[in-house]
């Protein structure tokens, strides 16, 4: 396509039919920084998308926690993805183009694609693109998909919602580009997505790990010295982690739960009216900020998925949990490993909330 980049193929560890990454391959660049250096960069006004964290190496105890979460949560995750698939199909039609938000959305986009193929015979294209808080949705990737699939609707997909920052980013980008911003997710505890598979805050097992459950692909990167105006946002591939890669096993295990009973249940749930977003999660974040004296909402990361990211990538101040059930067991394990204080906080719609240190 004239004037547009070509995606890196092969890239990542998923089968090529599952997803095409619309990303610039930065695998030969040294972009990882230590936690203290990265936090100092942010305090100086830098942006989180300019560097990458060093990939967390799971301890044996933590990896066992992931395995237990996968066994326990595979069917629940499959049902959430199936409900989201049925709802987006009803809203957007059979010609939809699936667009997952890298990287947490990528395995969910694969699950939705496989579900539509297995249950409806719909072999839909699926792309993974970058969206970055405060910097927006990758416009080059959007133009690329519109050129490749003229006139077809783009359906954005993510894993879960926190307080809704990415949905707000998507709303802004969609308005500028004339796109439909309705986001499909497995779970929407923030009550900000229009196409939820569920609104319970439960653990999607892929939230437990980073690149090794996301096709060996890093978080996305946007830096002027690396990414030009006609380039996709960037990312790295980590083939050196292939021995610990569970990306295919995760989607195979979850999709393996799709049987006649699950499909019937998903269609029954999807047929029920969907309550519109209330953004109650944002209100809860405001209250947490008031209680703990935090003025910057970016330091408050609600929900199991976002809490996991805080404990894996950031410098946590404390972890709030509503209770100590199985959905937060991996968080308690991580908190113990990093000596992070844990506090019970029942007055929130989330199972957990991670608070980032201001230091």
Helical amount: 25-40%
Radius of gyration: 19 Å
Q: State the oligomer.
A: single chain
Q: Indicate the low-confidence ranges by residue numbers.
A: none
Q: Taking all residues together, what is the mean pLDDT?
A: 93
Q: What percentage of amino acids are in beta strands?
A: 15-25%
| CATH fold-level name of the largest domain | Rossmann fold
Count of separate structural domains: 2
So what's the overall shape? globular
End-to-end distance, in Å? Answer: 47 Å
Pattern of helices and strands? EEEHEHEHEEHEHEEEHHHEHEHEE
Q: Largest sheet at a glance?
A: 7 strands, mixed
- From the helix content, strand content and strand pairing, which structural class follows? alpha/beta
Explained architecture:
- There is one protein chain.
- This protein has ten helices and 15 strands.
- The model has no long low-confidence stretch (mean pLDDT 93).
- The protein has two domains: 20-270, Rossmann fold, CATH 3.40.50; 280-356, Ribosomal protein L30/S12 (60s Ribosomal Protein L30, Chain: A, 2-Layer Sandwich), CATH 3.30.1330.30.
- The longest helix is centred in the first third of the chain and has 33 residues, at 60-92.
- The strands form four sheets. Strands 1, 5, 6, 7, 8, 9 and 10 form a seven-stranded mixed β-sheet that branches. The chain has a four-stranded mixed β-sheet with strand order 12-15-13-14, with helices on both faces.
- It is an alpha/beta fold.
- The protein starts with 19 loop residues before the first strand and ends with a strand.
- It has helices at 35-43, 60-92, 105-120, 139-148, 165-177, 247-255, 260-270, 280-292, 304-313, 329-338; strands at residues 20-21, 24-25, 32-33, 52-53, 97-102, 126-132, 136-137, 154-160, 184-187, 195-196, 234-235, 300-302, 316-321, 342-344, 352-356.
């Amino acid at each position: 396509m004239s004037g547009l980049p070509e995606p890196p193929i092969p890239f990542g560890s998923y089968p090529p039919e599952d997803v095409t990454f619309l990303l610039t391959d930065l695998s030969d660049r040294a972009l990882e920084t230590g936690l203290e250096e990265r936090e100092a960069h942010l305090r100086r006004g830098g942006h989180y998308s300019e560097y990458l964290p060093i990939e967390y190496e799971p301890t044996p105890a933590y990896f066992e926690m992931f395995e237990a979460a996968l066994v326990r949560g595979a069917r629940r995750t499959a049902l959430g993805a199936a409900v989201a698939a049925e709802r987006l199909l009803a809203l957007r039609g059979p010609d939809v183009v699936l667009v997952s938000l890298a990287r947490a959305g990528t395995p969910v986009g694969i699950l939705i694609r496989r579900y539509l193929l297995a249950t409806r015979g719909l072999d839909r294209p699926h792309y993974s693109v970058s969206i970055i808080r405060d910097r927006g949705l990758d416009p080059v990737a959007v133009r690329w998909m519109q050129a490749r699939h003229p006139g077809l609707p783009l359906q954005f997909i993510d894993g879960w919602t926190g307080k809704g920052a990415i949905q707000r980013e998507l709303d802004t980008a969609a308005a500028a580009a004339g796109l439909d911003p309705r986001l499909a997710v497995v779970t929407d505890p923030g009550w900000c997505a229009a196409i939820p598979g569920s609104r319970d805050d439960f653990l999607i097992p892929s939230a437990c790990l980073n690149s090794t459950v996301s096709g060996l692909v890093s978080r996305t990167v946007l830096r002027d010295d690396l990414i030009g105006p006609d380039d996709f946002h960037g990312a790295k591939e980590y083939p050196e982690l292939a021995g610990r890669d569970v990306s295919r096993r995760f989607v195979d295990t979850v999709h393996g739960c799709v049987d006649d009973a699950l499909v019937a249940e998903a269609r029954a749930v999807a047929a029920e009216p969907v309550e519109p977003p209330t953004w109650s999660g944002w209100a809860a974040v405001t209250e947490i900020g008031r209680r703990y004296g935090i003025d910057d909402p970016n330091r408050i990361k609600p929900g199991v998925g976002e809490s996991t990211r805080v404990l894996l990538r950031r410098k946590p101040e404390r972890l709030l949990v509503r209770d100590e059930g199985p959905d937060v067991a991996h968080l308690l394990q991580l908190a113990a490993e990093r000596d992070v204080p844990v506090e019970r906080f029942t007055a929130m719609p989330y199972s957990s909330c991670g608070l980032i240190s201001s230091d």
